Amino acid sequence: MPFSHHSHSGQFCQHATGMLEEIIQEAIKKKFIVYGLSEHCPRYRIEDLYPEESHLQPLDLSKTFEEFVKEARRLQEKYKSQITLLVGLESETITSSSTSEALDLIEKYSLDYVVGSVHHVHETPIDFDLEMFEIALSKSSSNKQRIENNPEENLFAEYFDSQYQMLQNIKPIIVGHFDVIRIYRPNFIFSDLIWKKVERNIDYVVNYGGLFEINSAGFKVGLPDAYPQRDILQVS
């Protein structure tokens, strides 16, 4: 009984490919029972646009998301006899207003569910490319509020703290790529401090009834595991 709750389409996302309806047809062909449509929550500041979006303005992202929901609802109805489609969003966690922005969209469009993800630390993308990851790392190193001397330790700690805040604020039914912070540091060894934060976040999700996706994107960038890596999957 295959199912997936995290997907993007080239029609509504710059780093994906394919029309939304084509993706749904492929899911039906592969006999998916449930398939979630979860385009990214719009970003509202021009400084938060990715290089691939240099030709766009934040307002364009909001319009695109509105178009996505409209098309997703149409397809949800069209294919309801063949597959259960869920219409949702993947959250952004960038600034203090990110939570209210996501919750407003959930209410405005009566979305079916949320994929809760973190893509930024210190308002800097950590999974777009190595250059941006290193910028986030440098900001972590200069953060005087941290007591650790290891910038990687700081960055990982801040990532999982940001994730914990997102989990508390949104309580997403699906947690997206739980340890994506490992993307450019796959061999980083978690200290006891980091493990405590990981276990705290896992316990919180389990207690409110959320689910963790197994995200194969890790394989696409050459990691030995999907997200989460096997050591996290073994946490009980």
From TrEMBL:
This is Histidinol-phosphatase. One of its GO terms (biological process) is L-histidine biosynthetic process. One of its GO terms (molecular function) is histidinol-phosphatase activity. GO terms for cellular component: cytoplasm. It catalyses: L-histidinol phosphate + H2O = L-histidinol + phosphate. It holds the Pfam family PHP. NCBIfam families: hisJ_fam. Residues 5-217 form the PHP domain. CDD domains: PHP_HisPPase_Hisj_like.
